[in-house]
Amino acid sequence: MGGSPDGPLNTTSNDQSSQSDDDPRAVATILSSFRSEPTVWIPFLVAGCLLWLVDVLRERDSLPVQPSGSASTLEITYSLYPVA
């Protein structure tokens, strides 16, 4: 009944610590999973494109700001409908 038991419960080596953080195999695995499952990254691409478009439109047509009479206050006016 004596002796040291050999089995998976007594292993002390850590396989994850022996791999570096910038393992090229890990990057290749991630890229291949993105290629095989486009449903994972397409929503992020669409959201990024929409945010870019909103940013471009914001830069082209920013909120109109009219200077007020006092230098210490700022007044912002906007309309919810087009003004002729």
Any key phrases for this structure?
84 residues, mainly alpha, two-stranded antiparallel sheet, 2 strands, 43% helix, 5% strand, elongated
Write the layout of secondary structure elements.
Layout: H1 15-18, H2 24-36, H3 42-60, E1 65-66, E2 75-76
Antiparallel strand pairs: 1-2
Biased composition (Low complexity): 10-19
Keywords: Plasmid
Region (Disordered): 1-24
Outline of this structure?
The chain is mainly alpha-helical and 84 residues long.
Compute the number of helices: 3
Distance between the termini: 96 Å
Strand content: under 5%
Order of helices and strands: HHHEE
Helix percent band? 40-55%
Count the E strands: 2
Mean pLDDT: 74
For the largest beta-sheet, the strand count, sense and barrel status come to: 2 strands, antiparallel
Q: Uncertain regions: pLDDT < 50 for 5+ in a row?
A: 10-14
Radius of gyration: 29 Å
Classify the secondary structure makeup into a structural class. Answer: mainly alpha
Side by side, the strands of the main sheet go 1-2
